[in-house]
């Protein structure tokens, strides 16, 4: 046992000395592995950062809100039929559902973007028609003034609740409540300004104008609500599956769908959105991981080529070692250890380089470094680089161990 330990120590020292004596060659040898491992860490960091940002944004975006929207089955798409949910569908569900706490329709202009004007300023924004319950469903609250109330909707009042971006783009004063803005050719009273909510997935959540849905119907015609989204929040302590089952049964009856017909609607939750983005990130990670894997294989081939050249260069040295009693196993272990050490050094340098980029991401985003580089990624890097050292270093090591000592000593 002691002999084996001593043999390992001696071959390890010889491998280290060889690497130190050929610093430039060793550095060039591991360059491919450095780039490969750094790429692995950077890819993992970027995908982790995106995942954390998406989770944080969805958490702020009314995480318990559910959107019921139309969905056209594939067989109907082929027939040119498009599914829709109408304002009347919303009223039907709102009057019959027992498990929903708050529900509101959401209607938007799809074919045109209204022009907003205030004094000499003008801008564009999303125009949304909704009810007073939209506030509690979407978690949107006024910074100034008030939100739309039931009386506004019943009386079809020309009032609007605007986002902070709209007020800024129109150069309105800090508290514009009581001012009038023009939407196309109609004037509306500003009754409130929403709290700043920022952006989600690059979309400005504050660039909107909300008006009573009855007012929108009177302005643009009832056909504007032939296709709406229905937003709702389940009752406390009621599981979302129970609510969706209830609404599915009600809506299928309402739409007269046969038992074998697919639903012409779907439920979208924050969790569902996150799972969709996670799937996209997984695909991106798999594709980029494959590309990075190619660079690591190229780096491993570089290690093998340099080690084969090293065997040729050190042929006479191998002959001297064998003539002094070195066994083929000792020769093979020395070259194999040298290959593994080069790969591990490359992995360590790549890890440090990748960590530098991850630190940059950590400084730009409110995410801790340990969240960007998980422990499994570090272990994976070292296991992978060790495997590269063993796999690509084995052929040169075997070649060196099989050299004939007499022929090796005569080699020039």
The topology string of helices and strands comes to: HHEHHEEEEHEHEHEEEEEHEHEHHHHHH
Let me know the number of strands: 14
Low-confidence stretches: none
Mean pLDDT: 79
Shape: elongated
Report the helical percentage: 55-70%
Compute the separation of the termini in Å: 38 Å
Largest sheet report: 12 strands, mixed
Summing up helix and strand content along with how strands pair, one would put the structural category as alpha+beta
* DSSP summary: helix tally: 15
Rg over CA atoms: 34 Å
Strand percentage: 15-25%
Provide a descriptive summary of the structure in words.
This protein has 412 residues and is of the alpha+beta class. Helices cover 58% and strands 17% of the residues. The protein has 15 helices and 14 strands. It has helices at residues 2-21, 23-60, 74-78, 87-96, 134-138, 150-155, 164-169, 213-220, 240-255, 270-313, 315-323, 328-364, 369-372, 375-401, 405-410; strands at residues 66-70, 100-108, 115-118, 121-124, 126-130, 142-145, 159-162, 180-183, 186-194, 199-200, 203-204, 208-212, 229-234, 265-269. Strands 1, 2, 3, 4, 5, 6, 7, 8, 9, 12, 13 and 14 form a twelve-stranded mixed β-sheet that branches. The protein has a two-stranded antiparallel sheet with strand order 10-11. Helix 2 (23-60) runs parallel beside helix 12, helix 4 (87-96) packs across helix 9 and helix 12 packs antiparallel against helix 14. The longest helix has 44 residues, at 270-313. It is elongated, with a radius of gyration of 34 Å. The two termini are 38 Å apart. The mean pLDDT is 79.
């Amino acid at each position: 046992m002691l002999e084996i330990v001593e043999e390992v120590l001696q071959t390890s020292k010889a491998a280290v000395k060889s690497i130190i004596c050929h610093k430039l060659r060793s550095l060039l040898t591991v360059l491919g592995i450095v780039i490969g491992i750094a790429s692995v860490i950077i890819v993992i960091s970027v995908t982790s950062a995106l995942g954390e940002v998406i989770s944080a944004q969805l958490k702020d975006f009314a995480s318990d809100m559910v959107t019921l929207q139309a969905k056209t089955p594939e067989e109907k798409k082929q027939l040119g039929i498009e599914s829709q949910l109408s304002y009347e569908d919303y009223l039907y569900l709102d009057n019959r559902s027992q498990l929903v706490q708050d529900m509101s329709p959401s209607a938007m202009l799809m074919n045109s973007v209204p022009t907003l004007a205030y004094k000499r300023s003008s801008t564009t924004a999303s125009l949304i028609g909704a009810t007073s319950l939209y506030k509690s469903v979407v978690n949107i609250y006024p910074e100034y003034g008030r939100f739309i109330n039931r009386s506004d909707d019943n009386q079809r009042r020309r009032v609007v609740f605007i986002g902070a971006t709209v007020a800024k783009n129109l150069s309105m004063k800090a508290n514009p409540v009581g001012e009038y803005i023009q939407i196309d050719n109609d004037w509306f009273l500003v009754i409130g300004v929403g709290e700043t909510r920022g952006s989600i997935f690059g979309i400005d959540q504050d660039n909107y104008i909300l008006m009573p849905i009855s007012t929108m119907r009177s302005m643009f015609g009832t056909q504007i609500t032939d296709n709406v989204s229905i937003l709702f929040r389940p009752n406390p302590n009621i599981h979302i599956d129970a609510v969706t089952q209830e609404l599915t049964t009600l809506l299928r009856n309402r739409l007269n769908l046969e038992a074998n017909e697919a639903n012409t609607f779907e439920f979208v939750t924050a969790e569902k959105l996150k799972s969709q983005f996670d799937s996209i990130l997984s695909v991106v990670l798999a594709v980029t991981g494959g590309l990075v894997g190619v660079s690591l294989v190229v780096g491993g081939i570089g290690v093998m080529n340099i080690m084969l050249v090293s065997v040729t260069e050190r042929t006479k040295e191998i002959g001297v070692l064998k003539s002094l009693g070195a066994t083929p196993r000792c020769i093979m272990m020395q070259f194999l250890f040298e290959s593994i050490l080069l790969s591990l050094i490359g992995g360590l340098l790549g890890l440090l380089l990748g960590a530098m980029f991850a630190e940059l991401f950590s400084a730009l985003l409110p995410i801790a470094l340990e969240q960007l580089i998980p422990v499994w990624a570090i272990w994976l890097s070292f296991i992978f680089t060790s495997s590269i050292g063993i796999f690509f270093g084995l052929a040169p090591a075997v070649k060196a161990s099989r050299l004939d000592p007499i022929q090796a000593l005569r080699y020039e």
